[in-house]
């Protein structure tokens, strides 16, 4: 029998463990927020580097490029506009964790070395998301609960003048446009410097906005999304209210494809484990108030392969469609979490009519596991529609498991898990590519529809 003191000890240990676990969950999120907030300063470092290079030119060469200093000033203004969007997006973000949790309180030294990369350490709370998760961070569509609290800043507008978040705060102090960092966890003084690779991800997100949510991405969406949407429409002709088929979109990125599928009449769930992506998709889906509300400059960070400076400094406005008025089917949700962890849960067995993977299956450490899970969560007779290459994400990473199969082997594994291929094509497409760039990487992506005809893997278990 326990004595009172022993109960107290156990309770204290339990509480301490819980606190440590929470702190571990907060750390990767804090790092991602820091990466977003570091964006303008890191970008400014780049511009300074360009200035230094320019400064090394001979007077004669400088004279030939007399417009160059103005070009760099223009680049600064574009960065400020991107930074403004980033701040507004962060303001609207409701962290699913208590951000006051701090690793500084961590008493167990080895836990302080926990991985901070979202890829290697999804917060534990993310692993429990189920079918009825609301759009990430609990803001229902169209209700405006995540209103941006920075009224007046719209006047900064395209190519506005402040070059960093600090300058934005200055504007506030000077009685100019209002900028208030409404969350303590957003205060720049609390942010840590993050590796440059993290800030690169922020730039990548800004480029992805063009792919998913700008008119400029329409061509790419026609290549990648349209074949999938056409296939879903043909395979599920009866999508009446009350008997909507269900569709899961793992690796949903910024959410456009998932939203389009929902608008077709499917009860749709997108899933993505990246907070970078989820902060942005949540903002566009939940917090945009009108089409074309926002402007970013997706291509400013690449000085290579531009036909002209104007091409590089091209703004895109977004969203090209206002999600709240797009015709989303009830039950649309975005789930934050690792596909493997979330959908291995027994509650997902045999529940989905369709699973759509677009540029996703090659994110696997173990693609066999992905296919096994896709098969398991589909109903018998359900369909898996895939479009994408096999550019394995963990290839060449020393400490990572990475199973890199050819398309032939991927299909063989799918057959093993009870899939029958009904359609197979190759689709030529780009991915987040600047359509005006002199370099256009093209994929010859595999596109297939495979039907789950039997539950072989269940029988084997
Ligand atoms: C190459 S992107 C494709 C995004 C989107 N489907 C598109 O076509 O634009 C892959 C996406 O999968 C997400 N992802 C990678 N591994 C994942 C996992 N294990 N669970 C959930 N999402 C994952 C990434 O965060 C990223 O958003």
Can you walk through the features of this model?
With 461 residues, this protein is of the alpha/beta class. The protein is built from 13 helices and nine strands. The protein has helices spanning 4-55, 59-64, 68-92, 165-173, 196-213, 218-235, 256-263, 275-287, 309-312, 339-343, 367-377, 407-416, 456-460, and strands at 246-250, 267-272, 294-296, 316-318, 333-336, 352-358, 378-388, 419-429, 443-452. The strands form two sheets. It has a seven-stranded mixed beta sheet, with helices on both faces. Strands 3-4 form a two-stranded antiparallel ribbon. α1 (4-55) packs antiparallel against α3 and α1 crosses α5.
In short:
The chain is α/β, with parallel strands linked by helices and 461 residues long. The chain is built from 13 helices and 9 strands. Strand 6, helix 11 and strand 7 form a beta-alpha-beta unit.
């Amino acid at each position: 029998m326990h004595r009172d003191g022993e109960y107290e000890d156990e309770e204290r240990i339990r509480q301490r463990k819980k606190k440590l676990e929470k702190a571990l969950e907060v750390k990767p999120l804090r790092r991602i927020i820091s990466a977003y907030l570091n964006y303008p300063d890191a970008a400014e470092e780049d511009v300074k580097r360009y200035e230094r290079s320019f400064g090394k030119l001979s007077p004669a060469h400088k004279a030939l490029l007399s417009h160059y200093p103005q070009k760099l000033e223009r680049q600064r203004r574009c960065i400020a506009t991107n930074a403004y969007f980033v701040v507004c997006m962060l303001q609207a973000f409701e962290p699913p964790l208590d951000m006051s949790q701090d690793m500084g309180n961590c008493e167990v030294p080895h836990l302080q070395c926990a991985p901070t990369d979202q890829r290697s350490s999804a917060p534990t709370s993310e692993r429990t998301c189920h079918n009825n998760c609301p759009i990430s961070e609990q803001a229902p569509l169209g209700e405006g609960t995540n209103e941006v609290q920075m009224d007046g800043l719209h006047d900064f507008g395209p190519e506005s003048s402040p070059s960093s978040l600090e300058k934005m705060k200055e504007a506030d102090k000077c009685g100019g446009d209002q900028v208030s960092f409404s969350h303590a966890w957003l205060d720049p003084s609390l942010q840590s410097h993050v590796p440059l690779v993290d800030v690169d991800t922020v730039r990548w997100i800004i480029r992805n906005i063009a792919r998913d949510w700008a008119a400029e991405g329409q061509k790419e969406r026609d290549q990648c999304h349209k074949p999938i949407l056409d296939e879903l429409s043909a395979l599920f002709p009866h999508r009446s209210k009350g008997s909507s088929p269900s569709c899961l979109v793992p690796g949903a990125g910024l959410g456009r494809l998932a939203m389009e599928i929902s608008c077709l009449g499917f009860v749709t769930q997108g899933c993505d484990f990246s907070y970078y992506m989820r902060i942005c998709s949540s903002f566009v889906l939940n917090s945009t108030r009108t089409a074309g509300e926002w402007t970013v400059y997706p291509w400013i960070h690449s000085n290579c392969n531009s036909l002209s400076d104007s091409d590089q400094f091209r703004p895109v406005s977004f969203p090209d469609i206002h999600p709240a008025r797009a015709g989303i089917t009830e039950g649309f949700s975005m789930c934050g979490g690792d596909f493997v962890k979330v959908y291995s849960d027994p509650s997902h067995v045999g529940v989905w009519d369709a699973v759509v993977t677009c540029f996703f299956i090659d994110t696997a450490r173990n693609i066999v596991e992905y296919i096994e899970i896709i098969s398991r969560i589909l109903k018998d007779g359900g369909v898996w529609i895939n479009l994408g290459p096999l550019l394995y994400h963990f290839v060449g990473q020393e400490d990572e498991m990475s199973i890199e199969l050819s398309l032939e082997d991927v299909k063989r594994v799918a057959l093993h898990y009870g899939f029958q291929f009904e359609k197979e094509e190759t689709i030529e497409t780009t991915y987040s590519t600047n359509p005006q760039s002199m370099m256009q990487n093209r994929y010859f992506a595999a596109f297939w529809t495979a039907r789950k005809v039997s539950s072989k893997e269940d029988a084997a278990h």
